[in-house]
Every structure is written in structure tokens, then in C-alpha cells.
Amino acid sequence: MSRIIKVGAAQSGPVQKAEDRDSTVARLLELMKQARSENCDMVVFTELALTTFFPRYYSEDRAEMDVWFETAMPNPATQPLFDYAHDNAIGFSLGYGELTPDGRHFNTQVLVDKTGEIIGKYRKVHLPGHAELEPERSFQHLEKRYFLPGDKGFPVWRTMGGVLGMCICNDRRWPETFRVMGLQGVEMVVLGYNTPSGNSLKSDETADTRKHHSRLSMQAGAYQNATWVVGVAKAGDEDGHHLFGDTCIIDPNGYVVARAETEEDELVTYACDLDATKFLKESTFNFAAHRRIEHYGRITTQAGAEPPEE
Ligand code: ING
């Protein structure tokens, strides 16, 4: 028996600051149509897919950054994606800046099923970077300034015949992200990321090293929780700021089974058999049989490391 989800990992090439939502959505819709023509069941779009990666810009007045956020989802600009999903029975996951009616800002990803309905919403928990302008950096990374930490934890949803979860970008670097979903039986984690090719403080950290960290994190999360992982990049040069791509689909053994070749809009597809998660979930990672939670207390009672006395 196999439960196949054919996934389209829809990498976005650069979105320039001057681009408008309509032209960006038109690009996403093209990728969705291509996915449909390749019989995909769902398309995964990247983090903050509707705009440039605006947290690289400092604004003294946070309210000025509200232009980068969506106050409703769907909304007129994104409705074409929801209509196409409904009319063509294809699901999708979309990352965007969420401004709630009560004025809270989140880095959000939604899960939309084949009827075009939003069945799940995730808000990025791990916000990297800093909240104040740090002039010594070669570029800013102000997610802590513009977003609140997510308030929904790491939920999973039953859809498309399996158990799916979401996370966003920096979340992939924290094993807790995947483990909390693994403890809910997740079979596929879909995530988007916008990752700069350089380190704003460590100029000798190469893009290759940063790609290695990205893949390592996703491959480990996949294998250690016996789940598929679909990591979708925003890639290329955004107004002089380069983001590495490396969109990839990773199987429950941690192998990269498909990857992007370009730094442009590019669809990467793979027929993911959710039943390929079963063997590891019932053996090596049979959590109930092997985990010893009486020894894991520090993980939820300590934020920072506490080394022994000198
Ligand atoms: N971007 C980066 C990411 O976690 C980063 C930030 C890069 C943090 C490299 C640490 C090391 O992939 C976002 N948007 O989180």
C-alpha cells in the first residue's frame, strides 16, 4: 500500500523591493499551473513569498513596514491562487507577513487543501537576527523587530491522506521544531526559507557552508523523525542582497531526492510515498519504545546553556 503525495516545491527567484503583489502572485500562479500539468497534489511556496525579504531593511517607525504585511488571507491579490486551487483540486502552502486585526505581526505560513480552503496556519516560532539597528553588520536581519514569536506551537494536520506540518526558515535549525511534530506523527513537513548567502558578521562564512547547514538541518529533521521534508527557497539577488536557493525534497531516510538547479522561479517535483515513513517510525524511531523523557528536562526548562562551574 502506498499513499503518494506528489509535491511541487515552487522555488521563487528574487522578488525586488519595487515589485507589486499582483506581478509576484502571477509568478506563483505560473508555478502552480506547471505543478498541475505535472499532476502534483500540492505546491509549496516559500517564506514571505509575496514580497522581497523586507526584514533586511531598518525602519525606525515599525508602522512603515505594515505595507509588507497582509491583513487578510485570502485577499484580492492572492485570491487567484485560491481560485486556481479550488478549480483544479491542487493544495498549496504559502508564506507571508500576517498583520492580525488586533495589530500583531507574524511570519506566517498557511496550508490550503484541494478545495482551496485554509485548513492550517503556522506562525514562525524561532526569529533569528536582532530587534535594533546594528550598523556593524553588512546587512540587517530585523525579524525580531517586525514579527512576534509564533503563538501556535508546532501543530500538524490530517490532509491529503497523511499528517502534514509546517515550519519556517530558521525553525529548521532547531531540532525541537521537527521533534514536536514528530511526536504528533508527522509524515511530511513543508517549509519555506529566505537565507542570505553571506553572514552579516562573519565575512569568511561561505555560501557553501551555509547551504551545508541548511541541508544538514533539514536532512537530520527528516531522518530523526521519519518524515518527508520539503524545503523551498526564495533565491537570487534581491536589490543587491543574495539569497541562496538549494530548494530540496528530502525523504524519511534523510536523502535529498530532488533539488533545484537554478536561482530562479523553479518547480521541483517528487512523488512522496508517505508509507515510506512507516519502517523507521516502527523501529529506530519508535518514540514510545525508545525515548527516555525522564532525562530530557533541560530541553523545556532551560533556554540558554549552563556549563558546569570552572
Ligand atoms: N533566515 C536565515 C535562516 O535561518 C539565518 C537566518 C541564516 C540564521 C544563517 C542563522 C544562520 O535560514 C531566516 N529568514 O530565518
How would you describe this protein?
The protein has 310 residues and is an alpha/beta fold. The chain has a single domain (4-301), classed as Carbon-nitrogen hydrolase (Nitrilase/N-carbamoyl-D-aminoacid amidohydrolase). Helices cover 23% and strands 26% of the residues. The protein is built from 8 helices and 15 strands. The chain has helices at residues 21-37, 79-88, 143-146, 175-182, 207-224, 278-282, 287-290, 298-301; strands at residues 4-11, 42-44, 91-99, 105-112, 118-123, 156-159, 162-168, 188-193, 195-196, 228-233, 236-238, 241-244, 248-250, 256-259, 266-273. The protein has a 6-stranded mixed sheet, covered by helices on one side. It has a 6-stranded mixed sheet with strand order 6-7-8-10-13-14, with helices on one face. A hairpin with a 5-residue loop joins strand 13 and strand 14. Helix 1 (21-37) runs parallel beside helix 2 (79-88) and helix 4 packs parallel to helix 5 (207-224). The longest helix is centred in the C-terminal third of the chain and has 18 residues, at 207-224. The model has no long low-confidence stretch (mean pLDDT 97). The structure holds D-[(amino)carbonyl]phenylalanine. The site of D-[(amino)carbonyl]phenylalanine has 8 residues, from loops.
Overall number of domains: 1
Question: Which ligands does the model contain, each kind named once?
Answer: D-[(amino)carbonyl]phenylalanine
The total of helices stands at: 8
* CATH topology description: Nitrilase/N-carbamoyl-D-aminoacid amidohydrolase
Question: What's the gyration radius in Å?
Answer: 19 Å
Q: What is the residue-averaged pLDDT?
A: 97
Residue fraction in strands: 25-35%
